[in-house]
Amino acid sequence: MDEAKQEELFWKKIEAEEKIEPKDWMPEDYRKNLIRQISQHAHSEVIGMQPEGNWITRAPSLRAKKVLLAKIQDEAGHGLYLYSACETLGVSRDTLIEQLHQQKAKYSSIFNYPVLSWADIGAVGWLVDGAAIVNQVSLQRTSYGPYSRAMVRICKEESFHQRQGYEIITQMANGTAEQREMAQDALNRLWWPSLMMFGPTDKDSPNSAKAMKWKIKRESNDLLRQRFIDKTVPQAEILGLSIPDPDLELQADGSYKFGEINWQEFYDVVQGNGPCNKQRLDHHIKAHNEGAWVREAAIAYGMSKSKETIAA
Ligand code: BYC
Q: Are 148 and 139 in contact (CB under 8 A)?
């Protein structure tokens, strides 16, 4: 089949809401954009383990520790699904990790903020996982099959993560005066960075137009951000916590008007100048280098097993 015919078939599938699969023909730009988005998502899942990992030894009870450990392990699993989905596009895991280490690939801005207290762990689950779900529910309908299927599995686990966070923040908000103050402080610091997770406004989002046409992205950055705000503000009210936005206003249609996001801060963080960028990347590079022997051993074991299978 010539290329024009293949492209026609590609668009027919997109229009019919059929998934594009790894062996299907796809435009080079579509493939590249998918690699960019999926790999950055994978990096976010894995880097996101760091701020939470710091709290395993300080969890206030055995139950809290077990739940947190399970959540962090889930994030590693999400990274695994996403790196695997990305590899089906013809790029190796090594290349993706190299791009992260050379800062050619990004990861979510939110993980460049410190997680300073147990209330922050609650706020991360409530707000960060809450924002992630809003985004990822819509990505379940993304046009690339392996990405879409990874999203379905990830969303199931994210909703448990969000509840884990909401449980902690509820306990803190209903605890002693000091605990309540910690919960409010966590919300004050993490509210605006959570809104930044959805990316720049639609008018300043260079990748959106193409991604929406290809149905890689299904809903816009602004729409998803608004959905998150509308869902989260009433939750804060139930907790008796106040959203740190003096311009927040309930409108007649039930949605909330909100104040101006500090986009300068967003771009500073994305460009590597956030409070924890250096710490996060240095830690990843160190862990990757120290884990080289594990990867070598796993490959050697795999090779010896396949030789045994061939011999048998
Ligand atoms: N942080 O044209 P735009 C999670 C970059 S949840 C850093 O709108 P796009 C987790 C963007 O990459 C978080 N960079 O881009 C939760 C682009 O730069 P490049 C991960 C950002 O791709 C809890 C430039 O800004 N979720 O993992 O159309 C626990 C212009 O933006 C950010 C996902 O990745 C940001 N917040 O839309 C553990 C979901 N926002 O690449 C883990 C999948 C934008 O051109 N990804 N940039 O150099 C998406 O839905 C989209 O990629 C985004 C951005 C909405 C994030």
A: yes
Q: How far apart are CA 85 and CA 64, in angstroms?
A: 32
User: Which stretch of DSSP H or E encloses residue 133?
Assistant: helix 130-139
CB atoms within 10 A of CB 116: 14
Per-residue model confidence as pLDDT tens digits over 99-156: 999 999 999 999 999 999 999 999 999 999 999 999 999 999 999 999 999 999 999 9
Q: How far is the CA of 196 from the centre of ligand 1 (A)?
A: 9
Strands (E) in 177-282, as ranges, are 249-250, 256-257
183: tokens are 């919960």
Q: Rounded CA gap, 147 and 194, in Å?
A: 23
Is pTM beyond 0.90 here?
yes
Among 81, 100, 108, name the best residue to mutate to test ligand 1's pocket (greatest count of ligand atoms within 8 A of Cβ).
108
**CB of 220 sitting under 6 A from ligand 1:** no
CA 222 to chain centre: 17
CA distance 295 to 202: 41
Q: Could you tell me if 206 and 275 are in contact, meaning their C-beta atoms sit under 8 angstroms apart?
A: no
Whether the CB-CB separation of 114 and 276 falls below 8 Å is answered with: yes
DSSP state of 103: T
